[in-house]
Each structure stands twice: as structure tokens, then as C-alpha cells.
Amino acid sequence: MSAPRPTIYDVARAAGVSKSLVSLVLRGSDRVSEASRAAVESAIRDLGYRPSRAATDLAAGRTRLVAVLIDDFANPWFVELVRGLGQVLAPAGYRVTVVDSANAATAEDPVEGVLSMHADGIVVARDVPRALVDSAASPIVIAGTRTDAPVGVDVVANDDGAGARLAALHVIGLGHRRIGHLAAGGGAARARAASFIATAVEAGSEVVATDYTGPATEAAGFDAAGSLLRDHAGISAIFAANDVMAIGALGAARDLGIPVPAGLSIVGYDNTPLARTHLIHLTTVDDSGFGVGREAGRLLIARMAGREPVGVARTLQPSLVVRGTTGPAR
Amino acid sequence: MSAPRPTIYDVARAAGVSKSLVSLVLRGSDRVSEASRAAVESAIRDLGYRPSRAATDLAAGRTRLVAVLIDDFANPWFVELVRGLGQVLAPAGYRVTVVDSANAATAEDPVEGVLSMHADGIVVARDVPRALVDSAASPIVIAGTRTDAPVGVDVVANDDGAGARLAALHVIGLGHRRIGHLAAGGGAARARAASFIATAVEAGSEVVATDYTGPATEAAGFDAAGSLLRDHAGISAIFAANDVMAIGALGAARDLGIPVPAGLSIVGYDNTPLARTHLIHLTTVDDSGFGVGREAGRLLIARMAGREPVGVARTLQPSLVVRGTTGPAR
User: Fold this and answer.
1) Counting CB atoms within 10 angstroms of each CB, which of A316, B99, B292, B329 has the fewest?
2) Where would I find the HTH lacI-type domain in this sequence (chains A, B) (predicted)?
3) What is the spatial distance between Cα B205 and Cα B137, in angstroms, rounded to a whole number?
């Protein structure tokens, strides 16, 4: 505590910009170039700068809290999203906390839970509960491609259609002509399925898709891949709705004695921490959870500062990450 | 919304107990038998009963929120803890939210973050920040074996010494006589290391332990296991400080071309959702995260109702879960 606490002037100096530009970044203004914003955010991190929290925060009922509503803690896709949110929101003085609707006991309504914490802002990263949109007094930003996203609410998402197309072109380029798809419920999974099938069929490949519409869990991926591989001869590649289902498929392949990728290629979606482990080393689509989190954080800061919602979707481009679970068709 | 909302009388009837006993359970009383408590909790879930939230909650500044402070979202050991907490706290009208200190930007102090959300209760499931204990106006329960757990604060944890002993006896029973241990920082990891080494040495086995004291991540497990296997001939089994490090070790073994379990046995700790996947199928110690969560939730309910902290540790017994990553020494 001996070093003096850094001020907004220190941040401006370190970033090589004016104090008022730092203020604009802290308020989430969109009148700031990407380069200046990055320089300011970097200086804030390097200096450990924290905006002074006016004593009026408490009096005004501000909690400096942003609540993120997700589906299921057992699916680590949300880790990058929360990291991206934190990188933008923490320097602006906000704290990110995560509420998981799947783990709630049936007696408790996740919407009421989120409302009860009086967060200054809410990020919805699951299919959108209508009651939340109707009742929330705080600004909402939707992260990801979601069912029932209401008109007029800001949405930040990766382009699931483009990502699934990358996955399809990859396996087709490897020579796979009979491909399985592990489907799941929810807006993102549906968008991925539609684009993957359209791309593959257009290229003259055949896709056998499962008709499962429940949550995209490891167990669901294991079951669906097992059925697919047993009931449909000649499938040499599988595209799963997400990484967790792909890990289920890897387990099914192992149990059936099918080597990956020599006998079966598997592609996931999300580029989760699991996909990046040395053990799993999964070919997947990086849907830029970190970038979606940063963008959602910036939009939310602007909304919390009183700006009206844009009511449009900001779409980030996904990329393909080729690792060890895909290879040429035999 | 046409069915009448269930009342406390409905719960009492369904559980076969009196209304006042239901009240005792909702207040977290310890004057309730385990059987009655289970019956009431089950009836609450089945009926979807929610205690009416008095309008005075808001006036009294109650948020009905319980904050859980964890280390790192990328390590899914916390999933069962949160499930256990939710099972007890949701029927009592509390919502669980998770704050991750690893993902916080450096500019933000996790302690300040937790304080700013004005939670009615706090569960600390990482090494305990002194500033939090000093500043928090709300009751705190510590979950897990933690460094710097202050005297006078309730602690619920599994018996890490007993769990590591189970792991040691398992690999020794399989005939392994030269065993690696992947150490890590933190109170739980240290307790596991000490007990594992003592048990193995007592049984006449040799343990080569790494001296790493950082966070127990997959990357750390991969690096440590790689060094261990390259530098020390004859190691036929590895006990990792937790599941995530064990998954790193599985990756290292694969990269070195060592088959598991034929050439190397690997044991983790936590019984995370990852350990239970068909693909990883990891032999591990179940440290009863769900049970720790339930007990911590009950203690917290009692504290939030005004009862003084017990100031003692409640210790749950861990169990060994044998899966596919351990086998006989050659």
C-alpha cells in the first residue's frame, strides 16, 4: 500500500491518450477507435487502475455487479465468455458473477434469483426467459445465438452458420462423404446443424443427423454417437453440436474400438478449455467466447451508463482450430 | 399458474411430519433427524414449494443471495459443491451465485466484488482471503481444506488425509512400488501429499514428488508428469493433487507413448464431471463435493438465521472410485 494509487491521469499518460478519452472508454462509448480502446484497457490492467467508486453508488442502489445467466456449469464453454466480460467490466469497476439455471433446485426460479441480486447489468447466455426480460429493471445483453431473443435487446454472438460451414468444409476437404451430426436443443445448436447439413449436402456429401433436442451434454453425445455408429454403416466423421457432446462421441468411439482419427474424425464447437487439453486435443470451432464477452461487456457498460439499446446483433467471426481428432478419410 | 401454490402444510403432509418440523428444517436447525430432514427436503422439491418471501426482506436489506468464492472456473470440481449448496439453499429461498477469483482482472479485488453483492451468506471455497473475513458483514462458511482458515469460522471439508490414504493403498495393492506424486499449492493439495507419501513409505513403496506449488491446472499436471516420467525411470503409477492435473498427466503419458493403465496407472482427486466422462474414465477419490455443499448450506442457513458459528470443522469421509486409469503393476 506504499505506492500511490494510480489515477486516470496515469492511465491517460501510459496509453498516450487524453484523460477524456479514458473517460469515454470507461463509460463504454462507441466513439473510440479500436486501437485507442485497446491501449487504454491495456494501461488500466498494467497499472492496476481502479475507478474510484463514488459513495453515491450505494445510495443510488448500485451494486457494481453484473450477473451472467448460464445453462450448466458442467459445460465449460462459459469460461472464456466470463474472462472476456471480466477484462472489460473489471477495469470499469464491475464484478462478474455467474448463476447456473441447470443446478437450481426445481423449487427456485432462476429469474427470481437473478432479480434478487440487484445486479446493475445482466448477461443472458442461455435461451432467454421471457419473464426476465419483462421484469428486469437493469439492462440486459444477450450473449450467443439464443431462442426467444426479444426484439430491441442487444445481442452479441458468433456466426454459428459460418462456424458450422468451416467445420463442414474441413471434413469434406479430408474426403469424408458420409458424415454424422450430433444435434441438440437451443438456438445455437439449431443454427449449427442447419448450416452444416446445407454445406455438406451442397458439396455432395451425405449427413445423418440425430433428432435429439435436449441439452448438449457429454452423456447425450455418448448415447447419440453410439447409436449413430452402430446403426449407420460407413460414417467416417462426426460433427457435434458442441465440445462436450464431441467428448461424449470420443468416449463412444473408444468403447466401440474405433481409433480417432484413423477410423473416425470428430469435430466439436466452442474451443472450450477441455478441447485444448493435451489429452483430448479436439478439432473444434473457436466461437470467440472471449471476444463475445468483451463485446457484451462494452455494450452493457454503455447501457448501464444510460445509453439506449441498439437492438441489433453484433456478430463475431468464428475460426476453425484443427487439432488431433480429425484426419483424412480412408 | 392454475394449480394452487403449495403451502408449508402441503410439505408437512407430504413428508409425514409436523408444520413446525418443516419450519425447523427451513431455518437450518440441527435439532432435526437426518431422516426427517431428508423427507422434508424431498417433499419441498417434489411439490415445488417456495417459502413466501416476506416483503420485509428487501426493507431489511436481505438479498436472499449466497455467494460462493472459488479459484478457477476451468476446474470443474466446484460443480458438485454448487449442486449440494443449491439443494439445501434453494428450498430455503436462497439463490447461489459463483465468483471466480482467477478470472478477475488484476485491477479488481475479489473480496471487494463479493462484498459489493451484499450476499446474505458467503461460502469460501479457496484459500481464505483475510480481508474478506475481516470485512464481511454476512456469515461465512469455509468449504474444503483451506490455507489460513481463521479460528471461529465454520469449516466443512472432506478428510483429505483419508482420501489420499485410499489412493495410496489402491496403487500399492496393485503392486506399484515406485510412485510419482504431482503436488500443487493450497491447503487441500498439501494435506493430500503428506498423507499419500506417509502411507506409501510406510508400506515400503517409494514416492517421487514434484516440488511445484502453483495452481493445480491441467497444464501444470502435463508439465510435471512429463518431467517425472522422463527424469525418473521405473515410475509405474502417478497420484495427482486433483483430477485436472491427472488429466494433464494422461496427456503427457499419451504424448510419451505410454499406455494407461497398461504402462502407467493414474489416480486423481475430486471425482469431477470430467473424471466421470466415458472418454477419461479416471480412477479418483470422491471428496463428496455434493455432501460438502449440503452441509455447508445447512450451516450457513443456521448462521443466517442468527445462530453463532460452531467454529469447528465438519469432516466428510471420501471414497475411492476405481475406473479405467489404474491397473496392476507389470
Assistant:
1) B329
2) 6-60
3) 49
CATH class given for the domain over A56-158+289-316: alpha beta
In the block, cell 469424408 appears at A176
B195 C-beta neighbours (distance < 10 Å), count: 20
- Tell me if A73 and B98 make a contact (CB, 8 A cut-off): yes
- CB nearest to A95's CB, from B108, B255, B277: B108
User: What is the interface pTM, i.e. ipTM, of the complex?
Assistant: 0.81
- Closest-approach residue (CA) in chain B for A104: B86
Residue B289, C-beta contacts closer than 8 angstroms, at least 6 positions apart: B77, B78, B79, B80, B81, B83, B84, B270, B271
Inter-chain CB pairs, A–B, below 8 Å: 162
Report in angstroms the alpha-carbon separations of A244 from A182, A216, A270, B272: 11, 7, 9, 14
Cell of A44: 488500466
Q: Residue B67: what pLDDT? A: 92
CB contact under 8 A, A107 and B97: no
Centre a 10 Å sphere on the Cβ of residue B99 and count the other Cβ atoms it contains: 24
The 3-state DSSP class for residue B80 equals helix
- C-beta separation of A181 from A210 below 8 A: yes
Task: Write the residue in B250, B255, B279 that is nearest to A251 by C-beta.
Answer: B279
Is the sign of the CA dihedral A275, B70, B184, B246 positive or negative? negative
pLDDT tens digits, B137-181: 789 999 999 887 888 889 999 999 999 999 999 999 999 999 999
**8 Å CB contact of A99 and B95:** yes
Mutation for testing the B interface, residue in A62, A81, A89, A108 having most B CBs under 10 Å: A108
Q: Which fold has domain B57-157+289-315?
A: Rossmann fold (3.40.50)
Q: Using one digit for the tens of pLDDT, what is the confidence trace for A54-88?
A: 433 544 567 788 999 998 888 999 999 999 999 99
Interchain contact, A73 vs B78, CB within 8 Å: yes
Contacts of A274 in chain B (CB under 8 A): 274
**Using the beta-carbon criterion (under 8 Å), do A107 and B90 form an inter-chain contact?**
yes
Which contiguous run of DSSP H or E holds residue A180? strand A178-182
- What's the order of all strands across the beta sheet hosting B206-209? B206-209, B178-182, B237-240, B265-267
Looking at this protein, which amino acid is placed at residue A169?
A: L
Amino acid at A76: P
What confidence tens digit (pLDDT) does each residue in B12-27 have? 999 999 888 887 887 6
Asked whether the beta carbons of residue B63 and residue A98 sit closer than 8 angstroms, the reply is no
- Cβ neighbours of B112 in A, within 8 Å: 95
User: What residue ranges of chain A are covered by domains with CATH 3.40.50.2300?
Assistant: 56-158+289-316, 160-287
Minimal Cβ distance to B106: which of A48, A108, A273: A48
Which chain A residues touch B64 with a CB distance below 8 Å?
Answer: 116
**In chain B, which residue ranges form alpha helices assigned H by DSSP?**
8-15, 19-26, 34-47, 56-59, 78-89, 110-116, 130-135, 160-173, 187-202, 218-231, 243-255, 289-304
Nearest C-alpha in B relative to A108: B90
At the fourth CATH level, the homologous superfamily of domain B160-287 is Response regulator (3.40.50.2300)
| Phi, psi for A182 (deg, rounded to 5) | -95, 105
Domain(s) labelled CATH 3.40.50.2300 in chain B stretch across 57-157+289-315, 160-287
Looking at residue B27, what is its pLDDT? 67
- The DSSP secondary-structure symbol of B305 reads T
